[in-house]
Amino acid sequence: MNKYKIKNIMNTELSYPKNKLNILLLEGVSKSAVDIFKKNGYKNIKYLDKALDDDELIKEIKKAHFIGIRSRTQLTAKILKHAEKLLSVGCFCIGVNQVNIDHCRKMGVPVFNAPHSNTRSVAELVLAEMVALYRGLVDKNEAAHKGEWLKSAVNSYEVRGKTLGIIGYGHIGSQLSILAEAFGIRVIYYDRVPKLPMGNAKQIENIDELLKESDFVSLHVPASDDTVDMMNKQKIKKMKKGAVLINASRGNVVDIKALVEQLKSGKILGAAIDVFPKEPASAKEKFTSPLQGLDNVILTPHIGGSTEEAQVNIGKEVAAKLVSYSDSGSTTGAVNFPAISLPQLVNRHRLLHIHKNKPGVLSEINTIMAESQTNILGQYLQTLPDTGYVVIDVDKENIAELFSKLSNIEGTIRCRVLY
Fold this sequence. Notes:
The protein is α/β, with parallel strands linked by helices. 31% of the residues lie in helices and 18% in strands. Helix 1 (31-39) packs parallel to helix 11 (308-328). The radius of gyration is 25 Å and the shape is elongated.
């Protein structure tokens, strides 16, 4: 439970002053994030362009109130138990599988990400890889650099009129669908739930049917137990002969060994892989993959969302969410927390109470308010199965006594006076 020294003065900032809140940004997140923090009055920012090893991370996270990471940093339970002051985590990327979000929730720490800011970047990369593989651009480029002149139409095709099968029709899949149709490509897609098609795209009821029809198969699914080795040997064998497989989603979605076998057999024309089961922790670590050395495979180092535009947008989006939570208590966009959107107010105090979702907690909160004759100006509540989040706006000046009583309610995870 985090408790802060409270000043019993109306209209005075009651939680930590902004200049005492420590913000740790790792892995060279976009400087647009730094700009957002500074613009909103946060000055104590430590910015590093690399990931930290466990010992360094433990040392730094002990002091951090907010931490911003990308995909390399692993916030495990082992690391998080040292985060004594941590208020929130920002993942400056799409995925959050590098963070133990359940452990964060139990700590009362919301985790924010940027699920949509790089959708265009990923979609453009996939489309470029489709054209490159179908025209043999990788081989022809390499030959030209060696002085060879491979001017031939053999095994070189237009993408127009071909069929693209998209597995996972979310923000990236649907964006890819729009771009592909502009190229004259027929689009079909599979998703677990019914999704409204973009343009002339058609939803297919099962994956096997999609695999049999598609000249290109592009994967855009989340990381989950159900998607591990989704494209296994059996599934890859069901792909159309001469088809292309593209994975820009998660590294463990494709059985790499099975893919290598089907590429070498000639069943699959080519593949483009941007994510891998094991990726280097830094540029200094050597990258190895069974796919290396195959002429019909494009390997890229997890750069689907790595464009200047995407990184700037991600920096702005995630930093803004962290600022909003710090300034007002809003948890809109949190992946592991009850979502509450809140305005910033004046001439009142705001208390944040995070607790285990068990019977009687809200009743006890209201009893404390009634017994202390507190005038409640606003009360907001949202719950998840195991966690409740209550925000209370009051005009009571003796906020210290109220804070103390709320903090001692059984089941309290964290209680804060925001202002």
